[in-house]
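User: Once you have settled down, look closely at the record that follows, taking as long as you need, and be ready to discuss the fold:
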Amino acid sequence: MGSATYPVVFAGEGDLVPVVLLGVRDGENLYVDKDGNWDAKYVPAFVRRYPFVFSSTDEGKTFTLCLDEDFSGVNTDGRGERLFDKDGERTQYLKNVLNFLQVYQAQFQRTQALCRKLA
């Protein structure tokens, strides 16, 4: 690809899906500066969901919430946002994470369907 910038970043193998739209013109990138640094207030949902992600082993009928425990923001020292309260119930933070990922997953599935039609 050289040093050219492309307006859409795709992910996946075989069935590609767009991850982020960086511009609408060939060679336009409204989010990354000439040195390759992110230069925008908006951060794509694909990135915002990290370190959380849904996983499915039954073709999307049910999902399991996964967490990258190697992420530097995850700790076991009781600092930061808790996922469960002292009674083992979901905290509001975890409820917000789950809601965000549910909305993200629904939009992802719509995007996959559109990409299949375009292909």
Summary: The chain has a mean pLDDT of 83. The first strand starts at residue 8 and ends at 11. The CA atoms of residues 51 and 72 lie 10 Å apart.
